[in-house]
Amino acid sequence: MYWQLDFMMLYGQFDAGRALGPFYARSGFTVLPPGRTTDIGYVLTGRPIGLGAGPGEQLFYCWNRT
Fold first, then answer.
1. Separation between Cα atoms, residue 47 and residue 9, nearest integer Å
2. Is the torsion defined by CA of 4, 18, 53, 21 positive or negative?
3. Do the Cβ atoms of 65 and 2 come closer than 8 Å?
4. How high is the mean pLDDT in each 10-residue block of the chain (66 residues)?
């Protein structure tokens, strides 16, 4: 549904102790290790903008491929 609404990126975070990384990876998301960030700024604004999860959490994200 989000892709039909033309979202550029979907992301979220989960508690690292819950071991949900494999689920999100199978669903097509990139899953970052705890404490890591990814740069989304150059794609959106041409400037660095980091996106990451809070302490003890992991970020997952996926860019719209359409």
1. 17
2. negative
3. no
4. 73 93 95 90 82 92 80
